[in-house]
Amino acid sequence: MKSLSRTSLALYVIFLSWLILFKSSISLSSDVLNSQIRSLNLIPFAATAASEMIANVVVFIPLGLLLDVNFKQASFLRKLTLVSIFSLAAELIQFVLAIGVADVTDAIMNTLGGFVGLMLYGFGRKYAEGEKLDRFIFAGIASLVVLFLCLRFLVFKVRY
User: Fold this and answer.
1) pLDDT at res. 57
2) End-to-end CA distance of the chain
3) What is the dihedral angle through the alpha carbons of 105, 111, 116, 121, rounded to the nearest 10 degrees?
4) Is 75 helix (H, G, I), strand (E, B) or coil?
5) Distance from C-alpha of 130 to C-alpha of 115, rounded to nearest angstrom
6) Nearest to 57 by CA among 124, 113, 105, 137
7) What is the reported pTM?
8) 70: Cβ–Cβ under 8 A, 6 or more apart, which residues?
9) Where are the beta strands (DSSP E) in the chain?
10) Which stretches in the chain have pLDDT values below 50?
11) Which is nearest to 2 in space by CA: 73, 81, 60?
């Protein structure tokens, strides 16, 4: 079970990185990489749509859940710090490589999503056995990723 949980975390981090940095594009020569727009927004909640903020929260909830599954002994604050560092690193990479807008609002909302995931896991442990809860989380996250990929490539066919 431990190797499954570590593999799930690694795959989700890769998926999340692809989603954040490359906007779920499959072409490395896409407009995302060729845009060369270097933009930095340091004013929280200034120019971010509510739907984008909600999306940032939602995609980081599984990260919080998977961190709790994998690092049960680590403190809540340490796990939340990992979420924040990952989010800040993604925003910094976007800025340095000029592949998107580095936005403090994104970092805040991503961290909030990780926080919600960590809280949900703690809540779930009160009502479910640890191993059953972990299996439920793996199945749920895997289903959501597959659903996202199907929607992305079969329904919405986004071009960047």
Assistant:
1) 94
2) 38
3) 160
4) coil
5) 19
6) 113
7) 0.86
8) 5, 6, 9
9) 37-41, 99-103
10) 31, 160
11) 73
